[in-house]
Amino acid sequence: MRTFKLRIVGIIVIILVLLCGIVTYNIITNKKNNNSSANNKQEILHKVSEIGVKKDEPKYNKLREFKGENLIHNDKQIPVLMYHSIADNSMVTDTASKSIILPPEAFKQQMQYLKDNGYTTLTLDELYNFLKNGKPVPEKSVVLTFDDAYEDNYTNAYPILKEFGFRATIFVITGGTDKIGAYLTSAQLKEMDANGIDIQSHTVNHEELDKLSLKEQQETLVQSKQFLEKLLNKKVDYIAYPYGKYNNFTEQAAQNAGYTMAFTINNGWANKDTNILFLNRVFVNALKGFDQFKERLTNPNYQ
Ligand SMILES: [Zn+2]
């Protein structure tokens, strides 16, 4: 009787040990599976993002290497065209406002001209590489920039730029993003930045930098940069000074904030003999005709 009891106890102990073993084994393998499925997920995400980059690369990489004939080096200069709003201006009476609102038809005509005449629209990274590092670019190169980030840049300019496969840059007043209806939303900025339109800074509140101290300038330069970098998950290296204004502190402020290239509205083409933090731009005046556009695009010494 006693041995029988002992046997029963023995069997129960063995069963318990076996059960414990099975449970432990299950826990361990489960964990492993979870880990490997997490790894798989990461791997898949990684692959997807890689595919994404590769898919976009031929179309939207920001730094192309130009080869072949008809290249120019940085002893030459390049027109950096400055636009603002692309919209109907027929109801606008104020001359200054009207001059910066270019009707979409006129804009399209200009883009068509660039295409028909074999122009390459450079990104700012490419312009920087040309001016600073002496990398050659096509002889007929041009840079398209838009100041202030008006919503019509998305509704009117962006479809035309896409149609021609052109690169462009929008300088954003970050204080207006998602707050003022006339300006681009963060969703629009993100979409465009992912599709060939480079988003860069135009300060937080369109401050007149020439009236600000070094510290004040630095604040708006840094804050706008950080805002865009966080929003777009990229480095923001370039800025256009509001109204093209600056003072003796501006160079230091721009350097301290980490900008490597910046634009004024001083007339002329961009060239390496100008301080890279104070580059010229070509104003495309909506009140002037197509002939002035052609003149400014083709003659570095335009009036
Ligand atoms: Zn502006």
From TrEMBL:
Transmembrane segments: 7-28
Taxonomic superkingdom: Bacteria
UniProt entry keywords in alphabetical sequence: Carbohydrate metabolism, Glycosidase, Hydrolase, Membrane, Polysaccharide degradation, Signal, Transmembrane, Transmembrane helix, Xylan degradation
Keyword Chaperone among UniProt keywords: no
InterPro entries: Glyco_hydro/deAcase_b/a-brl (IPR011330), NODB_dom (IPR002509), Polysacch_Deacetylase (IPR051398)
GO MF: hydrolase activity, acting on carbon-nitrogen (but not peptide) bonds; hydrolase activity, acting on glycosyl bonds
Subcellular location field: Secreted
Family annotation (SUPFAM superfamilies): Glycoside hydrolase/deacetylase (SSF88713)
Pfam families found in the cross-reference section: Polysacc_deac_1
Gene3D superfamilies given in the database record: Glycoside hydrolase/deacetylase
Any one GO biological process: xylan catabolic process
NodB homology domain segment(s): 140-303
GO cellular component, one term: extracellular region
PANTHER family: POLY-BETA-1,6-N-ACETYL-D-GLUCOSAMINE N-DEACETYLASE, PTHR34216
Protein name in the entry: Putative xylanase/chitin deacetylase
